[in-house]
Amino acid sequence: MSKITWLFDLDNTLHDASHAIFPAITANMNRVIARVLAESGADATPEAVNAARLAYWRRYGATLLGMVRHHQVRPDAFLHEAHQFDDLAAMIRAERGLGRLLARLPGRKILLTNAPRRYSQQVLRHLGLHRHFAQHVPIEAMTVHRQLRPKPSKLMLRRLLARQRIAPGSAVLVEDTVGHLKGARALGMRTVWITGYLAGSPAAQQHSSAHPALRRAVRPAYVDVKLKSVTGLPARLRRLGVSADRT
After folding, report:
1. Which of 241, 244, 217, 243 is nearest to 228 (CA)?
2. How far apart are CA 83 and CA 147, in angstroms?
3. What one-character-per-residue DSSP string does 67-133 give?
4. What are the structural domains, with CATH classification, of the chain?
5. Global pTM?
6. 105-119, 160-174, 193-207: which has the minimum mean pLDDT?
7. 13-50 pLDDT per residue, tens
């Protein structure tokens, strides 16, 4: 069994973003989109704004990309406005023992999140998990030829593995967004689908392809392991072909 590298998503994988954070992000995004649409003379009703946000997310994998490509919005400005919170720490919910869990898992851990750097750093530090990650790859770092290519971009994943000198078969992507796992599996990576937070709120439908039925859905062929929580990972190492030896 080869030495492993874990690529962990953040929201709805390591903590419950559907509880309060995703609804706040959705409200923030809607305010930005409404302003941009109104400035261009387009329909800026709540229905039109919701439709635009979801359409861009479904087409590009991130609403941000649609706003950049169709409305020339600055990525850094959009991300900044979308991730403004009155009290982020009070909004974070997570299971106990995540630090011990990460310490138990063999191999290197990389955070790979479509969230911006400042927000994801704040969440990691609040959870006390930052020390467990060898590297942090936020959406700002997911570029190919100077173009943003966030998950589920296979090109971005391929470039990341090459830069980190990680063989695809030695990498495990741990995600709540099942569509992101499909591309990773096509590259030869191992895949873990976390389903425990998928039905938390309607806002999760954008960020996690969520629907209550997904938690009960049959595991797709491109998913090696389906778990309610990341805390179940140590018991599934053999299924993933991972040695429990941390040395």
Report:
1. 217
2. 21
3. HHHHH---HHHHHHHHT--S-HHHH----TTHHHHHHHS-SEEEEE-SS-HHHHHHHHHHHT-GGG-
4. 5-17+93-240 (3.40.50.1000), 21-82 (1.10.150)
5. 0.91
6. 193-207
7. 999 999 999 999 999 999 999 999 999 999 999 999 99
pLDDT band at 246 (very low <50, low <70, confident <90, very high): low
CA angle 26, 28, 34 (to 5 degrees): 95
SS3 143: strand
Phi-psi region at 219: left, alpha or beta (left = phi > 0; alpha = psi -120 to 50): beta
Distance CA 76, CA 81 (A): 9
- pLDDT, residue 214, reads 53
**Element (DSSP H or E) covering residue 64:** helix 63-71
Over the stretch 68-100, which tens digit does the pLDDT of each residue have?
A: 999 999 999 999 999 999 999 999 999 999 999
Whole-angstrom CA distances from 102 to 2, 38, 41, 160, 220 are 18, 46, 50, 21, 25
